Amino acid sequence: MKHVGLNVASDALMTAAYTGVNAGMVFISADDPGMHSSQNEQDNRIFARFAQIMMLEPASSQEAKDYTQSAFMLSEQFDTPVMLRMTTRICHGKGIVELYDRSAIEAKEYVKNPHKFVMIPANARLRHVVVKERFRAMCEYVENSPLNLVEENDPDIGVISSGVCYQYARESFPTASFLKLGITHPLPMKKIAQFIKSHQTVYVVEELEPFIEEQIRAAGLQVIGKQALPSIGELSVEILNEKLHGKALPHKGVDSLPGRPPVMCAGCPHRAVFNVLRKYRAVISGDIGCYTLSTLPPLNSMDSVLCMGASIGMAQGYVRAFKEDKSRRVVSVLGDSTFIHSGIPSLVNAVYNRTRLTIVILDNSITAMTGHQDNPGSGKTLAGDHVEPLNFENLARAIGAGFVRTVDPIETESLDQVIREAMEFEGVSVVIAKRPCVLVEPNQFPGIMKIDKELCTECRICLRVGCPSISLHDQQVTIDPNLCFGCSLCKQVCPQDAIQRIV
What is the pLDDT of residue 60? Predict the structure, then answer.
């Protein structure tokens, strides 16, 4: 899971650390320093310390594979969940990986053990003692673990690092000695102390929080870390050279480059929804998905986006806050997979508390933003079996929503009519904007769109749609035939009927 996913899973994790495991249990937590595609850059290493479990950090593609095997072995050895902590650069990295022969592992027999796995207070108190005893055993193990390596070179300069930061530091300090930590919780404090005492100056190179550094300083050891390095964003070789060696970064003039923000794909059915919604000037409580991009120009749609499933709950808060202003309407917008993930309980709450709220579910039948994974609305299981997909309309009615409609968002007149009726409804109204993701079904529209230059008056209303296939070329609006999917949204907004479909 990505880092914010562990926030949701932490309820289970904290108590799983008490129960322990039967067979090996390993979970991957992928942090995102620099927030390449995330709403925050929290440092999930802190969760390992919080739960008192073991944590491994690979520094390469090979180690990502090898450490996974080691993590399962350590999980069984110490009867604990083990965290494999990644970052964006490791997750997106590629490299030649050496494979080994697979070992056949027999499944363990199930043995009922309520004292271990039923966490009523009487059992949990005893298991907390086990957690502390296990942690002491892990602390002894890591001192001699082969995953924590000392690379002796320059006796004057030492570097303590882990993960991708080790790769940056190796390039920035080519002659330094290194303590490369493969296990970063618990830390091998005796080995760290010996390493620091045998080198004149020791740097701790880590991204985000001073997780390693603080524990070293708490032991009374002196290192150079966050007093020189940033605790925000990613590190790099260039940053290390500047902050630790005084080598100024060359000026690249990136501020003068035009912005290239991400956009929803050409032909995306979500775009039509926001083109209709913005005319009503409603407060839009958004969620996590491709449609979050509608917050950017020219759509400028979202008023808030917090976390997965927050849209309906926050919208209810807006409604309560605006109770004195009956003219201000609130709309919650979220995708099908987000609705399944954590939107359903909020819909129940909205109906139960008789909230006047419009909820728009953007149903493209896939979990698109993270790579087109299937979900219960896709009609396909994890094993690839075809099943009946979850019916959002029936579900909303069963929960008690008084107004439920399904509409094709590309048919903007019908969409507009349904949204208007939904916003006028006194109660919870649910609009399901259903159209497959254009990347999953690229041939759902016949032909592509083309501008008739004789009819076009250059009013540029079509540019407000925000489609990446429409741009200005020599001050004239053009449609790139290589990008256009033929959804016809631009044609529907053109007041001159200057955009035609060509097959």
Answer: 97
In this prediction the pTM is 0.88
Spell out the alpha helix ranges (H) of 253-333.
269-277, 310-321
pLDDT at position 254 is: 55
159/212 same-domain check: yes
CA distance 485 to 467: 11
Compute the distance between CA of residue 265 and CA of residue 267 in angstroms, rounded to an integer. 6
In this structure, the answer to whether residues 273 and 393 fall within a common structural domain is: yes
Assess whether 237 and 311 both reside in one domain: no
Divide the 503 residues of the chain into consecutive groups of 10 and give the mean pLDDT of each group.
94 97 95 93 97 98 97 97 97 93 86 96 97 98 97 95 97 97 98 97 98 98 96 95 86 64 92 94 94 92 93 96 86 97 96 97 94 92 92 98 97 97 96 96 94 94 95 92 96 95 92
Q: What is the pLDDT of residue 358?
A: 98
Helices of type H across 220-323: 237-245, 269-277, 310-321
Helices (H) and strands (E) in the chain, counts: 17, 17
Q: Contact at 8 Å (CB) between 85 and 57? A: yes
H-type helices in 268-377, by residue range?
Answer: 269-277, 310-321, 336-338, 344-352
Distance, in Å, from the CA atom of 392 to the CA atom of 405, rounded to the nearest integer, reads 10
Residue 394 lies in a domain: yes
Q: Flag whether 152 is in a domain.
A: yes
Are 428 and 475 found together in one domain? no
43 plus 116 within the same structural domain: yes
Q: Cα–Cα distances in Å, from 473 out to 357, 424, 448?
A: 42, 42, 19
Q: Which of 461, 446, 447 is nearest to 496 (CA)?
A: 461
Residue 330's closest CA among 291, 297, 286? 286
Per the structure, the count of domains in the chain is: 4
Query: What's the confidence (pLDDT) of residue 102?
Result: 86
Whether residues 9 and 119 share a domain: the answer is yes
Residue 479 lies in a domain: yes
To which H or E segment does residue 434 belong?
A: strand 428-434
Residues 129 and 156 in one domain: no
The CA-based diameter of the chain, rounded to the nearest angstrom, is: 82
188-219 pLDDT tens trace? 999 999 999 999 999 999 999 999 999 999 99
Q: Are residues 329 and 412 located together in one domain of the fold?
A: yes
Which tokens hold the place of 145? 């673990």
Q: Is residue 294 part of a domain?
A: yes
42 phi and psi, to 5 degrees?
A: -60, 150
Distances (CA, A) of 33 to 7, 62, 187, 346: 16, 21, 22, 31
